Amino acid sequence: TVGLGAVEACGEAGYQVSAVVVDRSGAPQVVMRDVYASRFTIEIAERKANAVILAGVSSSEFRVNRAEILAEMNEVDGILVLDGAVPIRAGGALLGAVGVSGAPGGDKDEACAKAGVNRVQEQLDFLD
Q1: How confident is the prediction along the chain (128 residues), in pLDDT tens digits per residue?
Q2: Nearest alpha carbon to residue 71 among 60, 61, 82
Q3: Cα-based distances in Å from 36 to 7, 18, 30, 32, 78
Q4: Is the pTM of this model over 0.85?
Q5: Which of 59, 63, 111, 128 is the most buried (most CB within 10 A)?
């Protein structure tokens, strides 16, 4: 799954993380946590994934593109605009998002999230 792939990718890099996959409405579908990751990483990962659902782009793109409203967005219940979450798409349609938290930096979280999506992208593309 996407979540397992993200946690494993970070584990291979030496990071203990949580990954949360949300559907296109922002409802959690999968929660994966490395045994050594803080339980707080679950909430952070979910809120990052929800930022993707809101914006339709990676959380890092959202952060850069809408820097002028970042403080306001981070006040929205369930949203956290930090690097570390990416969309899950099939045939150009947004299916959901995966957020990762726990690596030393959002760029590393995002790399693991992308690895999780890449792990299943061929199957998603087959859905076309």
Answers
A1: 899 999 999 999 999 999 999 999 999 999 999 999 999 999 999 999 999 999 999 999 999 999 999 999 999 999 999 999 999 999 889 999 999 999 999 999 999 999 999 999 888 887 65
A2: 82
A3: 11, 10, 18, 12, 24
A4: yes
A5: 59
